[in-house]
Write a structure and sequence with these properties.
InterPro entries: Ptyr_pPase, Ptyr_pPase_sf. This protein has 4 helices and 4 strands, in the order E-H-E-H-E-H-E-H. It is an alpha/beta fold. Helix 1 packs across helix 4.
Length: 136
């Protein structure tokens, strides 16, 4: 039976979306990944582009709010930003909670290419964390 992993960040627009997409693409034999936010916004176009660069399509993802997952039996909740961790220090029914703070690529400034550099760095940090912690 697959373990259910929920990645949470404030807006569910970049970090949690990239984590969900990567986990489902790389480890779908063991995990079912989800993502949500404390607020609903949109999936950031540069997050979609950063994932496309590594062959993962998250263009069909949508921003989701936490309450959508309250009835789902979640094995692991991973908060990926400090404000989500502060807003959601516990999750109903979660068997385990972990906090890992990744920088917010949505706050990057500069040219689109300068912003993409930040999105790529954060994407790669998320991938490294997942590969080191969830590959079991």
């Amino acid at each position: 039976m697959k373990q259910k992993v929920l990645f949470i960040c404030t807006h569910n627009s970049a970090r949690s979306q990239m984590a969900e997409g990567y986990l489902n693409a790389k480890y779908s034999d063991r995990y079912e990944g989800f993502s949500a936010g404390t607020e609903v916004t949109r999936v950031h176009p540069l997050a979609i582009r950063a994932m496309e660069e590594i062959g993962i399509d998250i263009s069909h993802h949508r921003s989701k709010v936490l309450i959508e997952f309250f009835d789902l039996d979640i094995d692991l909740v991973v908060t990926v930003c400090d404000s989500a961790n502060a807003a959601c220090p516990m999750f109903p029914g979660a068997k385990q909670m972990v906090h890992v703070s990744f920088p917010d690529p949505s706050s990057a400034t500069g040219s689109e290419e300068e912003q993409m550099k930040i999105f790529r760095q954060v994407r790669d940090e998320i991938i490294t964390w997942i590969d080191l912690n969830l590959k079991k």
